[in-house]
Amino acid sequence: MTQPPDAILRRNSGFDAVKGAAIVLVVLGHCWIGLEGAGLIPDERLFSAVENAIYLFHMPVFFFVSGLFFKAVAAPGAFLRGRTESLLWPLVLWSWVEALALMAAGEGRAPVDLIGLLMYPAPPKSVFWFLWALFVLQVVTYALHRLFRARTEPVLIVLALAALGYFAMGFDPGGLVNVLENAPYFLAGVILASRRAELLDGRFPLGLAVLLLVGTEGLVWIWGAVPVPPAGQLLALAAVLGFTVLVGRTAGVQPGAALAWLGQRTMPVYLTHIIVLAVVRVVLLKLGQEGLALHLLLGVGCGIGLPVLLDQVVQRLGLSRLAGFGSRRAT
């Protein structure tokens, strides 16, 4: 039965809320690591506990949701142009911006000449690995859809298992580590795309979602670290499912509605928050402020708020494509 547009919009807002909550965790995680590097978190156990809790699943969520909404219906040329514009161009542009910021700050890892600046995006550095890994996964999945068509799902299942098995056999993935490590999350989303409504409409048991998220986080707490793949991948898959169901069902009420709003603006936040966090941390330290709570509050607040303000300006000027921020669905 065809569902009414408002039901579809509510469900999509649910997945926006999932992305919104995940981007908050991304900013919090990077702020947390930056503060540890600055020597502001003396309790090593506290640092590890928070880091492990966040890093278990915060990026796998984005791969999973991307897979849920992946479509292979465009012509090959249009598909590649779209993915280049939405993933590769932001990677290149904001890698250059980061390189210029490092040069201005006198960082030792900054490029030293024009050639180094131009080549800085390759291989992907900093947070930009995500864009490259997602690009590769989407292109490969698109090619498989075009090749196998109605028989694609079994192939994707085999590939997801192969990605898990690759690490189980102890092979070194080299430069493809980010692609292979995150392949199961993206492919799981693609495989479940036709049933994504079930995640948010009540058919997926809420108690099971709580068990998956809390149980996996509890195991990580007991172990004191996120296990290496494939055990870590399996735990992350379970946590991603639980997190998606729990957060996705909050979109109709606060704070879920606010997270859904933020979830439509994750790209500008993701691309720029690292620079904002570094500036906030340096300014506070220059002012003699070393309180952990203050750094977290201002760091996360500015790391989300300033990129959102920048996005508002960019959208008003009609420069969203040029800035790599992408377009947003009308609400």
Automatic annotation (TrEMBL):
GO terms for cellular component: plasma membrane. Keywords: Cell membrane, Membrane, Transmembrane, Transmembrane helix. One of its GO terms (molecular function) is O-acetyltransferase activity. InterPro entries: Acyl_transf_3_dom. It is found in: Cell membrane. The chain crosses the membrane at residues 21-41, 53-74, 86-106, 126-145, 152-169, 206-224, 230-248, 269-287, 293-310. One of its GO terms (biological process) is enterobacterial common antigen biosynthetic process. Residues 13-310 form the Acyltransferase domain. It is a multi-pass membrane protein. PANTHER family: O-ACETYLTRANSFERASE WECH. Belongs to the acyltransferase 3 family. This is Fucose 4-O-acetylase. It comes from Thalassovita taeanensis.
